[in-house]
Amino acid sequence: MANSISDQPMPQHHCRPPELAVIVPTYQEADMVDEVVRRVDAVLQGIAWELVFVDDDSPDGTSDRIRAIARQDPRVRLVQRIGRRGLSSACIEGMMSSAAPFLAVMDGDLQHDETLLPKMLEVIKAENLDIVVGSRYVSGGGMGDWNARRQSMSRFATRIGQYLIHADLQDPMSGFFLVRASVVQGCVRRLSGVGFKILLDIFAEAEQPLRFRELPFTFRARESGSSKLDNAVLWEYLLMLTQKLIGPVIPVRFIAFSAIGGLGVFVHMAVLWPMLTLLGTGAFLISQTAATLVAMTSNFFLNNILTYRDMRLRGRQLIWGWLSFVAACSVGALANVGIANYLFQGGHSGWFLSALAGILVGAVWNYAVTAVYTWKR
Ligand code: GDD
Ligand code: MN
């Protein structure tokens, strides 16, 4: 009887595979998800849809809430990611979890206007487009209650974005769009997944210039909870832009890691100098050791919140993380000195190039080893 599934009467929504998947990334939106489902259901009457929440294991129990809804309604699905953070990568994973030919991405805090969804679907099909973007900057659209600082930040980011993708897109920073699944599938391996600018990434990486249209909407005020996009988002945006500019040759994390390493030299000196003035040069060994430890520690924490923001270690993980970081970098320092010394003493290169080669080998070692042992889980 194994193949008699089709004999069984099925509920209506089982019969039609979804034409449209609405991907909703969530972090700490437990109070919002019921309303999101209710509104999507109301507005997509007559369309075969599914709703995919991608939740990064929010401590407020968002995932449990979504699971409870999904038990009642099979059109609602959940991807619960553990130990990961990041808006872009959440959207990508949600999109890749669906077989629907059309994919929409929409925020889970009701700030995007879900009533635009049917129009977006209609327009993408009627005009045979690749993507339809919900836009705050075309006539009829608006910004809601953003403060001046955030508005000017957004305008600045928008300029850079437009320059980057060479497309006359008024709102490349929008997180609200509806796209053909084939477009995403065609470029998904090139998407950086860093930060929160998934739309920009798709435009930059699509196989062909995208046929698009922008539809106006007004960015609603947030009813409860708070924006998760703090100042560090600007840093992530910079990381993504850097990644686009240098391409896949050098990983952008390595650039960030090296920049922080360079900063570590200043931290080192800032500890060493006062210690020597206080304790005298007789205390060089102890001072140098202390300065090294402090610099390593500050580098560890900076890398943890900047370079590895999306897989940040917290709580007790910090202990193992710090230990492995210090261990790896100590070996890196030995390799650095060893190689520089070998090159210099052997007469292979002058002091400057010898030192540079040592630093480079040490940096690559530190980066590679900590990427595997400190931040990879
Ligand atoms: N899974 C996951 N992981 N979701 C996240 C994360 C994360 O790390 N960070 C934020 N989200 C979810 C939020 O729960 C919300 O549903 C949505 O992503 C947007 O996050 P907000 O924190 O509400 O962003 P915002 O209102 O400040 O920013 C909006 O404006 C941008 C335009 O400048 C968002 O709409 C962006 O999508 C948009 O690009
Ligand atoms: Mn929001």
UniProtKB/TrEMBL annotation:
Keywords: Glycosyltransferase, Membrane, Transferase, Transmembrane, Transmembrane helix
GO cellular component, one term: membrane
Protein name as catalogued: Dolichol-phosphate mannosyltransferase
Transmembrane segments: 254-276, 282-306, 318-344, 350-375
Pfam family, one: GtrA_DPMS_TM
Sequence similarity: Belongs to the glycosyltransferase 2 family.
Location of the Glycosyltransferase 2-like domain: 22-184
Membrane topology, from the record: Multi-pass membrane protein
Presence of keyword Transferase: yes
One MF annotation (Gene Ontology) recorded for this entry: dolichyl-phosphate beta-D-mannosyltransferase activity
InterPro entries on file: DPM1-like, Glyco_trans_2-like, GtrA_DPMS_TM, Nucleotide-diphossugar_trans
Localization annotation: Membrane
Domain called GtrA/DPMS transmembrane: residue spans: 257-375
Nuclease as UniProt keyword: no
GO terms classed as biological process: glycolipid biosynthetic process; polysaccharide biosynthetic process
Principal location class: membrane
Entry-linked Gene3D superfamilies: Spore Coat Polysaccharide Biosynthesis Protein SpsA, Chain A
CDD domains membership: DPM1_like
